[in-house]
Automatic annotation (TrEMBL):
<protein>
    <submittedName>
        <fullName>Leucine-rich repeat-containing protein 55 isoform X1</fullName>
    </submittedName>
</protein>
<feature type="transmembrane region" description="Helical">
    <location>
        <begin position="278"/>
        <end position="301"/>
    </location>
</feature>
<dbReference type="GO" id="GO:0008076">
    <property type="term" value="C:voltage-gated potassium channel complex"/>
</dbReference>
<keyword id="KW-0813">Transport</keyword>
<dbReference type="InterPro" id="IPR003591">
    <property type="entry name" value="Leu-rich_rpt_typical-subtyp"/>
</dbReference>
<dbReference type="InterPro" id="IPR001611">
    <property type="entry name" value="Leu-rich_rpt"/>
</dbReference>
<dbReference type="InterPro" id="IPR000483">
    <property type="entry name" value="Cys-rich_flank_reg_C"/>
</dbReference>
<keyword id="KW-1133">Transmembrane helix</keyword>
<dbReference type="InterPro" id="IPR051432">
    <property type="entry name" value="KCNMA1_auxiliary"/>
</dbReference>
<dbReference type="GO" id="GO:0099104">
    <property type="term" value="F:potassium channel activator activity"/>
</dbReference>
<keyword id="KW-0433">Leucine-rich repeat</keyword>
<keyword id="KW-0732">Signal</keyword>
<dbReference type="Pfam" id="PF13855">
    <property type="entry name" value="LRR_8"/>
</dbReference>
<feature type="domain" description="LRRCT">
    <location>
        <begin position="216"/>
        <end position="270"/>
    </location>
</feature>
<feature type="domain" description="LRRNT">
    <location>
        <begin position="57"/>
        <end position="89"/>
    </location>
</feature>
<comment type="subunit">
    <text>Interacts with KCNMA1.</text>
</comment>
<dbReference type="InterPro" id="IPR000372">
    <property type="entry name" value="LRRNT"/>
</dbReference>
Length: 318
């Protein structure tokens, strides 16, 4: 059974391969030698179709020039379809986009810059960046992202700059969220809702130079000590926003700059009890228990004596 060829210019969800013109002609019955004029028109139409497919027309409300597609500030509620295949810089900033469909970037393997700031994104579909291996700059700031899952940047190993700032509902970053991003130099996590960040999320980033984490409600408990120790030893230039990074808790360090905490600040986290300590606590508990029993016994005797004395006094008066 023969399968009809896909229409020229259409994008398939599973890939970006287009039907070959030779395959299309081979499925047609041979009508005999064509008229020269008909042949010329056919060749012109075929060439136009191929050019249209190699570089799709610019989407409505967008401007396209020199592989830059600018769809910013157009009040878009969804991403524009059918971008030029050779797009390198895509700006969808300052719109009202709430979601990006799965596989949206599959065909744009030349993409270097993606700007999605100032939208209403809550999450991104898994595997969105599987085919954008040349993507270097990603801006997701000023959205409503609530978490960064483990597969968010899967296969996007060319990323150099990621901006996740000003996502007020961002409360969790998976320990493996940035796994494999060995070229990442700039990471902005400022002005979110982060109270904790795992050391595992950052220690796999050997090229990290700048880290912005100010403006988050950090809880500077014992669980934050490994991260702060690593930051002091490994990232010397991440203190650009050190004055903005403050502790919101616990109460004893509330308002303290995050980077002002030293090993002495976490000294209580390393206090451990020895066997002698446990024996002493057990002994004190035993003594307190005995003292409590003796005290109750003496109080009972005293109360009984008072009662008898009072009764004897009443009988003498009678």
């Amino acid at each position: 059974m023969n399968t009809a060829p896909a229409p020229v210019g259409s994008l398939q969800q599973g890939g970006c391969q287009l039907p070959k013109m030779g395959d299309t002609w081979s499925q047609l019955p041979w009508p005999g030698p064509p008229h020269p004029a008909v042949l010329l028109v056919s060749l012109l139409l075929a060439a136009g179709a191929m050019r249209s497919d190699a570089g799709a027309s610019c989407p409505v409300l967008c401007t396209c020039r020199n592989q830059v597609v600018d769809c910013s500030s157009q009040r878009l509620f969804s991403v524009p379809p059918d971008l030029p295949m050779d797009t390198r810089n895509l700006s969808l900033a300052h719109n009202r986009i709430t979601a990006v469909p799965p596989g949206y970037l599959t065909c744009y393997m030349e993409l270097r810059v993606l700007d999605l700031r100032n939208n209403s994104l809550v999450e991104l579909p898994p595997g969105l960046f599987l085919h954008t291996k040349r993507l270097a700059h990603l801006d997701l700031s000023y959205n409503n992202l609530s978490h960064v899952p483990a597969d968010m940047f899967q296969e996007a190993h060319g990323l150099v700059h990621i901006d996740l700032s000003h996502n007020p509902w961002l409360r969790r970053v998976h320990p493996q969220a940035f796994q494999g991003l060995v070229q990442l130099r700039d990471l902005d996590l400022s002005y979110g809702g982060l109270a904790f960040l795992s050391l595992e999320a950052l220690e796999g980033l050997p090229g990290l130079v700048t880290l912005q984490i100010g403006g988050n409600p950090w809880v500077c408990g014992c669980t934050m000590e490994p991260l702060l120790k690593w930051l002091r030893n490994r990232i010397q230039r991440c203190t650009a926003d050190s004055q903005l990074a403050e502790c919101r808790g616990p109460p004893e360090v509330e308002g303290a700059p995050l980077f002002s905490l030293t090993e002495e600040s976490f000294k209580a986290c390393h206090l451990t009890l020895t066997l002698d300590d446990y024996l002493f606590i057990a002994f004190v508990g035993f003594v307190v228990s005995i003292a409590s029993v003796v005290t109750n016994f003496l109080l009972g005797i005293t109360a009984n004596c008072c009662h008898r004395w009072s009764k004897a006094s009443e009988e003498e008066e009678i």
